[in-house]
Write a structure and sequence with these properties.
The protein is mainly beta. Helices cover 6% and strands 44% of the residues. The protein is built from one helix and eight strands. It has an eight-stranded antiparallel sheet, with no helix packed on it. Strand 6 and strand 7 form a beta hairpin. It starts with a helix and ends with a strand.
C-alpha cells in the first residue's frame, strides 16, 4: 500500500496507536445498576474511545460533555492504576468495519 492510499483510507487527523499504558476503563453512572467496564480502543495522542453495543442501556445514560470518574487498568493489572476524571467528547454510530452498528464513545482524560 502506498502513502497516498493510507491517507485516503484513514481520514482521522491524529495518528493512532495501541493502548500501551492503559488496557481498559471502569466507571459508574447515575441510573445504572452495575459498573461498566470496557476495553480501550483507538488511542490517539488527544484521546481514546470505548465501543458500546447499539442495544446497550448505557447509551441512554451517556451525553457528550459528561465528566465521569473512571478507573484505568493495565492489561495485567486487576487493581486500577489510576483514577481520573474523563470527559465524553463524542458518541458516534459506526457504520462500517469491525464495530459496525455499534457506538464509538470518544473519551478525553482531564
Amino acid at each position: 500500500m502506498d502513502e497516498n492510499s493510507t491517507a485516503k483510507d484513514d481520514r482521522r487527523v491524529d495518528a493512532r496507536k495501541s493502548p500501551d499504558q492503559y488496557h481498559s476503563v471502569k466507571f459508574t453512572k447515575s441510573g445504572l445498576d452495575i459498573p461498566y467496564q470496557s476495553k480501550l480502543r483507538d488511542i490517539s495522542e488527544k484521546g481514546m474511545c470505548i465501543v458500546v453495543p447499539h442495544d446497550s442501556v448505557l447509551l441512554s445514560h451517556l451525553n457528550i460533555g459528561d465528566i465521569l470518574d473512571m478507573e484505568y487498568y493495565t492489561e495485567e493489572g486487576r487493581m486500577p492504576v489510576e483514577q481520573a476524571k474523563t470527559q465524553i467528547k463524542h458518541i458516534t454510530k459506526n457504520d462500517q468495519g469491525q464495530f459496525k452498528e455499534q457506538y464509538i464513545v470518544g473519551l478525553s482524560k482531564l
